[in-house]
Amino acid sequence: MTSSPATELSTAYTLPTDARTRFAEDGFVRLRGVLSPDTIAAYEPEITGKVIELNTMHLPMAERSTYSKAFLQVGGLWKHSRPVAEFVFSSRLAKIAADLMGVDGVRLYHDQALYKEVGGGITPFHADQYYWPFSSDKTCTVWVPLQDTPLGMGPLSFSVGSQRFSHGRDLPISDHSEEELQKVLGEQGLPLSQEPYALGDVSFHSGWTFHRAEPNTTDVPRRVMTIIYMDADIVIHQPVNDAQRNDLAEVMPGKKPGDVPDTPVNPVLYRR
Question: Which GO molecular function annotations are given, in alphabetical order (predicted)?
Fold first, then answer.
């Protein structure tokens, strides 16, 4: 038993024996009880406080785009809070990412809070790596709910095996991506996996796995913290869209295509 939340974040988690196989085959895996309720309770108030402080979206829900209705999106929280940095730099979570991807180590791409407000709309189908300029698919995101997340709150759902399906990878998150991917993923017979998350459950999904979320129909905001990992030795690719060009400039400052993104804000979080 760990002695403190900080200790738990730096203590290895034992993966289920089939987790690597499920991640490779399905493009995602949900893991039960990765973090204790005490650990989440220790960090959630600081994460939520920083989301409130740094959030720049203040339009009424009715005046927002589909993307803006989906969630409050606040990145780089670790730069503004030592406790949040402690959470984001967790070697427990980073080692899981490395083990699932089968790489020697992982470095931080960035963190991102995704808070789906009461009345928040759908998160349209998309694949995260549309936004990332990398030459490899060795990327993944951990999705950490900060409360029990029943189906009515809009937990993340995944198109099973869609990381191997290339159609739609050029679509940014939008009404169009939702419509097009609903159609083509259905035609491919790729089922949608949707489950509630108990407090302490997390999921990891590959950068090219298509995923979405339903609206939040409860009277409680859906509070989620995410951390995006990349192979510690990944190489930057020539950006192919404006989102990737912006990420290269803002998330990996000073780097160019062909470089390993070994910047001060992209530290290695775990190495074997």
Answer: 2-oxoglutarate-dependent dioxygenase activity; iron ion binding
Tokens for 48, please give them: 């939520």
Residue 18 CB partners (closer than 8 Å, separation 6+): none
Do β-strands 28-31 and 202-206 pair in parallel, antiparallel, or remain unpaired?
A: antiparallel
CA-wise closest residue to 43 among 223, 203, 180, 245: 223
Contact 97, 108 (CB under 8 A): no
| pLDDT tens digits, one per residue of 125-145 | 999 999 999 999 999 999 999
Cα–Cα distances in Å, from 142 out to 15, 62, 180, 196? Answer: 14, 30, 26, 16
Q: Which domains does the chain have, with CATH numbers?
A: 20-251 (2.60.120.620)
Amino acid at 233: D
3-state secondary structure 122-190: CEEEECHHHHCCECCCCEEEEEEECCCECHHHCCEEEECCHHHCCCCCCCCCCHHHHHHHHHHHHHCCC
Which residues, including other chains, have CB under 8 Å from residue 159's CB and lie 6 or more apart?
27, 125, 165, 181, 185, 190, 191, 192, 193, 209, 210, 211
Q: Find how far residue 55's CA is from the centre of its chain.
A: 18
Is 50 exceeded by the pLDDT of residue 228?
yes
19-26 vs 91-101: helix crossing angle, rounded to 10: 60
Residue 144: partners with Cβ closer than 8 Å, 6 or more residues away: 35, 40, 93, 202, 224, 225, 226, 227
Residue 168 corresponds to which tokens in the numbers above?
């739609």
Model pTM score: 0.96
CB 81 within 8 A of CB 50: yes
Rounded Cα–Cα distance for residues 177 and 175 (Å): 6
